[in-house]
Amino acid sequence: MSHELLLAGCLGIAACGLGCRDEGSPPGDPPPSTQRLEGVVARVGDATITAAAVARVAVAQGVSPQLALEKQIDDELFAREAHERGLVSAGALQNRRNILLSRRLLRALLDEAERAGPVTDTELDEVSSRRWLELDRPEAFRTVHAVVQIPEDADPATRAKATRIAEAIRAAVVPSGDIARQDPPPETQRGAQNPDTAQKAFLDAAASVATEDLKVTAEALSPVTASGRVLRPEPQQFDIAFSGAVAKLEARGDITGVFPSAHGLHVAMLLERVPASVFPREERRRMVHEEVMTARARTAHLALMEGLRRQHGNLVRIVDDADASVALVKIEP
C-alpha cells in the first residue's frame, strides 16, 4: 500500500470529504452559534455543515448520510488541527477546493512515523505472521487421503472393523504410489491444474474397498505445513496428527501406514512437496517498511481524531432536527 493511497483515502480523509465542506471563517475559539440556518445540520466552531454537503459525501464515498455527517465533522476538526500546526494558512481554510490542508497534516503524520525509527522486530513479526504465505512460507505437502471415520461411542468391535477397512484401503492404494513415482506432478496452466493420474488412481482404489456400515471419505487436500497450516489465504488448520504424519513422507508416491487422528483412521499419499519460500529477515524488513509506516500513521491519525473530538467537542453542535434532516437526505447520484 503506497503513502499516496494513505493520503487519498486510507485514513478516511477523501478529497470529496474536504472538497464538500462549507465555506467558513478560520477556526476560532468562540462557542458556536445556536441560530438555526436553512439546511444546516451541524456546526464545528464557525463552520457549518449542510444537508446538501452531507449528500455529496454520501454519494461520493458510498456511505450512509449519518456516516457522511461524521466524516464531515472529522474533516472540520482535522482542518482546525492543520491550521493550528501552521501547516496551512487561514486563507486556505476558506477555499473549499483546497485539499492540501489534509495532505499536509497526513504527510506530517507519515514523517513522524518515519522519525520513530526503522521497522521494529515486533512490527516485522506481526506483518510476517499476517503475510506468511508471501513472506515466510515453510515447506508444505500436497496429499490425497482416505479416512475411516469412527463414532465417538464406538465399541471395540467397531474400532477393530475400522482398522480392518483402513488396512484394506492401504493395500488397495499401493499401485497408485507406483503411478505417482512414474508420472511427475501435473503443471498448472492458466489457473487450472491438469488431472493428476496418481491422485485419481488413489481415489478410485479407496472407493473400491467395501466400507460396510462405516463412513469413509477420500479426497485430495490442499498443501499443508508440518505444523498443520494450510497454504490458503483464509486461515485453516489441519489436525497436527495428520500434518505431522504426511510431513514425514519424502517423495511423491510415498504412502503412510494407517494412523489415527481426531477424525478417524487415515491413509495418505504424498503428491508433491511444495518448496518453502522464506525471505531473509532483513530483506523482509525492507519489504514491509512502507506498510508499517502507513500503519503507524493510521494509528496516529485515529488517536489524533479521538483527541480532537475530546479537545474540541464543545465546538461541535448538531442542530435539533439534524437526525430528521439527515434521514431525508437523498443519495442518488
TrEMBL record:
Domain of life: Bacteria
Chain segments carrying region Disordered: 175-194
GO molecular function: peptidyl-prolyl cis-trans isomerase activity
Entry protein name: PpiC domain-containing protein
